[in-house]
From TrEMBL:
It catalyses: alpha-D-xylose = alpha-D-xylulofuranose. This is Xylose isomerase. Mg(2+) 2 binds at residues 275, 278, 314, 316. Belongs to the xylose isomerase family. GO terms for biological process: D-xylose metabolic process. Mg(2+) 1 binds at residues 239, 275, 303, 346. One of its GO terms (molecular function) is xylose isomerase activity.
Length: 444
């Protein structure tokens, strides 16, 4: 089946910064060589299925604003059943992937298949749409960056999936992840993401933290065991998520996730998928979370979006701040770039952007911003001024004395004796923050 949902008859191409064509890239040329790779291979763009094709434009104070022919409220049942609607949604999705030339997409199971009345029906529906995806992927050459299971929307998950107090819910969640891993493997997915939307609590009055943490540890070990059992070669990822929608969540930020992985023996098996909006909600910057994940050896992939800093909520807007994006890619490129991961647009339109073409325009703008940011990051790395400042700032640790401290040759008492004997009395050295920020501004 083919569609013309967007009303365009040719792919969106690169026309350069001087172009006034809204349906053209101004900065994203997929074949441009940047830092030793094609720009497409550096950025590894993916489109998320849920916000792009599953969200109807509702918010806590109003219903849906988007009119999509596959939504239940608009689907003419005389045309077929819910699976027909799901396939129409897939047709439109792959139409958009092809128009934009994005190499990847991502999905939850509940985004792509109708909700059944049982686990068995859910599984049949997922398998049917997985087979349909496989045909679409072979025809378009679009690949799967990652799959995941929705363990948060259905009312059964109101108290979480892995951390639910009811073992039957735990079992249903585990079985669902099993089917989603099977689907991801069948489609050649590069990763599988565990997103704990409700793995947390509203009140400690009804929560046993120790028990729920152990449940989550057991759940993730089961996921890793099954990955190896079926020979899935992709990376298992956790997406850190703070305080939304629950009061507290066990996967709050990168540091919290790392501590959890270490405790349950998973630090060599699972990495993180970091979202810009979640980093901000956790009280961090995006670059902080990326730098920490790389320092801990658990960086995997990113969800690219932004928050409205006046709202204090995860607004999932398309990126438009080149400086922020450049600093994020500086951390990614500086540590070798993506391996299995990529740049997934976990972003959605504003409720008032109701035209189908708005979805294309949002992605065009986001892809251009990311291209500008990555090229700026590459230029900063090639210039070397920022890195040289780091080398200079920590040069003392390259001395014999610095090495002896780190090798454990001193304790507190022997180090105190050395300070007294040699009258060590250091003068502070400028951190040069403004100078460094000025360097960044040269490139963005």
């Amino acid at each position: 089946m083919t569609t013309s949902f967007f009303g365009l008859d040719q792919k969106i191409t690169f026309e350069g910064a001087d172009s006034s064509n809204p349906f053209a890239f101004k900065h994203y040329d997929p074949d441009e060589m940047v830092f030793g790779k094609r720009l497409e291979d550096q950025l590894r763009f993916a489109i998320c299925y849920w916000h792009s094709f599953g969200w109807p434009g509702n918010d806590p104070f109003g219903g849906e604003t988007f009119e999509r022919p596959w939504f239940a409220s608009h689907w003419d049942r005389a045309k077929g059943d819910a699976m027909d609607a799901a396939k129409l949604k897939a047709d439109v999705a792959f139409e958009m992937f092809s128009l934009l030339g994005t190499p990847f997409f991502c999905f939850h199971d509940a985004d792509v298949r109708p909700e059944g009345t049982s686990f068995a029906e859910n599984t049949r529906n997922l398998q049917e749409i997985t087979d349909y995806f496989q045909e679409k992927m072979e025809a378009t050459k679009v690949k799967l960056l990652w799959g995941t299971a929705n363990l948060f929307s259905h009312r059964r998950y109101m108290s979480g999936g892995a951390t639910n107090p009811d073992p039957d819910v735990f079992a249903f969640a585990a079985a669902t992840v099993k089917t989603c891993l099977d689907s991801t493997k069948q489609l050649g997915g590069a990763n599988y993401v565990l997103w704990g939307g409700r793995e947390g609590y509203e009140t400690l009055l009804n929560t046993a933290i120790d028990h729920e943490m152990d449940q989550m540890g057991r759940f993730l070990n089961m996921v890793v065991d099954y990955k190896h059992k079926i020979g899935f070669e992709g990376t298992i990822l956790i997406e850190p998520k703070p305080q939304e929608p629950t009061k507290h969540q066990y996967d709050f930020d990168v540091a919290t996730v790392y501590g959890f992985l270490k405790r349950y023996g998973l630090d060599a098996e699972i990495k993180v998928n970091i979202e810009q909006g979640h980093a901000i909600l956790a009280g961090h910057s995006f670059e902080h979370e990326l730098a920490l994940a790389n320092a801990l050896g658990i960086f995997g992939s990113i969800d690219m979006n932004r928050n409205d800093y006046q709202s204090g909520w995860d607004t999932d807007q398309f990126p438009n701040n080149v400086a922020e994006v450049a600093l994020a890619y500086y951390q990614i490129l500086g540590h070798g770039g993506f391996e299995n991961g990529g740049t997934n647009f976990d972003a959605k339109l504003r409720r008032q952007s109701i035209d189908p073409q708005d979805l294309l325009l949002a992605h065009i703008g986001g892809m251009d911003v990311c291209a500008r940011g990555l090229k700026a990051a590459a230029a900063m790395l090639e210039d070397g001024s920022l890195q040289q400042n780091l080398v200079d700032r920590y040069v003392g640790w390259e001395s014999d004395f610095g090495g002896e401290i780190m090798d454990g040759q001193y304790g507190l008492d022997s180090l105190a004796n050395k300070v007294l004997a040699e009258n060590i009395n250091p003068d502070p050295v400028s951190g040069k923050q403004e100078y460094l920020e000025n360097i960044v501004n040269r490139f963005v």
